[in-house]
Amino acid sequence: MDQNRTNGYQETIQKGISAVRLFRSGESKGNGGRDAQIARLKEELARADAIVVGAGAGLSTAAGLTYSGERFARYFGDFAARFGIQDIYSGGFYPFPDAETRWAWWARHIYYNRYIDAPRPIYRKLLELVRDKDYFVITTNVDHQFQRAGFDKTRLFFTQGDYGLFQSVNPLTRKTYDNEDWVMRAMEAQGFVKDADGVFQIPPSGAAMRIPTALIPKCPDDGADVTMNLRADDSFVEDEGWHRASAAYADFLQRHKTARTLYLEIGVGANTPVIIKYPFWAMTAEQPKAIYACLNYNEAFCPRQIEKQSICIEGDAGAVLERLK
User: Fold this and answer.
1) How far apart are CA 121 and CA 53, in angstroms?
2) What burial letters (b/e) apply to 12-34, b meaning 16+ CB within 10 Å?
C-alpha cells in the first residue's frame, strides 16, 4: 500500500469537523418553493462542470431496499417469529445461539441487500442525470447498488465497507475477501430456490434457519473466523481498493475546487453527517462557484451562511429524480 497516497476520507472528515463550528446562525430550507427549487437543481445539473454525489441510506430506502415491513416479513419472517427480531438492521446485532444460525441469517442479510437489484430503478435514474458529467460518488451505503446500476467503479468511494466482502477476525490480516460464491451456496443450503428472474425465494415448505457446520466461512489465508467488512470500530479493514478510492476522491475534490461544482447530497441522515453533509457544507462555503443541493425525505436544510448557494428539496428522492430527468 502506498503510504504517500492521499487519504480523502480523513481529509474530508477533518474539513467537516473544523468547519461545522462556523455554522452557528441557524438553518434554512433554501429559497423558493419546491417547484422552484427543483427547477433550479435541473439548471445547476446542466451548468455544473463537476458533480459530487453524496449518498446515504435514504437513497437505498427510496429505491425500495427497506429493512422492515413487507420485505422483511417475506424473507426473514421465520427469524422474526423465533427470535423476535423486528427488522434487518437489528438482526445484524442479534446474539444467535450458534454460528450455523448466525451465518444463515447473514447469508440472507447479504443476499437481499447486495446481490439483487433494488426494486425501484432510482440509481439508474441518477446515473442518467450525471453520466455525461465529470462526477464522483461518495457513499456510506454498503449495498453495491451504484455499481449494479452501471456507475463507473473508479468514480465510487464506499467509505463504510461492502456487504460483498468478508475480513478475517485476525487483526494482522489486513485484507478483504469476496463472498459471492459463499452467499449463493449458503442460500441454497437453506433451501432457497431461484424464480424466473433468477432471484432466490423461500420455497412453499419454508427455508432452513441454519447452514451446515462445514459451510461456516473461514479466512482463506489464515483459517480464522471471518466477519463482515463493515465499519463498526477500528477493526474495520481499509484494504487496497478502499485506499485507492479514498485517494481518487481527494484528487477529484482538489482538481475541481475552483470549478462550478454541484455537491448533490441524497438521503444523508444525522447518523454520519461528518462524512458527507458537513464537508459538503464546508466546501460550498469555501468555493464561490459551488452549489449545495440536499434531497431528503423530511430533513432537507442547509446553514444560513450558504443559503444563497443551496437547494433544499424534501420528499421522495425517486420522484424528484424523475422530474429532473
Assistant:
1) 17
2) bbebbeebbeebeeeebbbeeeb
Distance CA 122, CA 66 (A): 14
CB burial of 38-68 (b: ≥16 within 10 Å; e: otherwise) equals bebbeebbeebebbbbbbbbbbbbbbebebe
- Please give the Cα distance from 55 to 147 (Å, whole number): 13
Sequence-distant (6+) residues with CB within 8 A of 137 are 52, 53, 54, 55, 146, 151, 155, 156, 157
Closest Cα partner for 61 from 265, 263, 296?
Answer: 296
Domains along the sequence of the chain with CATH: 8-62+119-159+238-324 (3.40.50.1220), 70-117+180-216 (no CATH)
**If you average pLDDT over each of 9-13, 187-191, 317-321, which comes out highest?**
187-191
Cell 480523513 belongs to: 10
End-to-end CA distance of the chain: 41
Strands 291-296 and 261-266: parallel
Burial class (CB in 10 A: 0-12, 13-18, 19+), 139: buried
Instruction: Determine the length of the chain.
Output: 325
pLDDT in tens, 227-281: 999 999 999 999 999 999 999 999 999 999 999 999 999 999 887 899 999 999 9
- 198 φ/ψ sector (left φ>0, alpha ψ -120 to 50, else beta): left
Full-model pTM: 0.95
Cβ pair 112, 75 in contact under 8 A: yes
Which grid cell sits at 242?
478502499
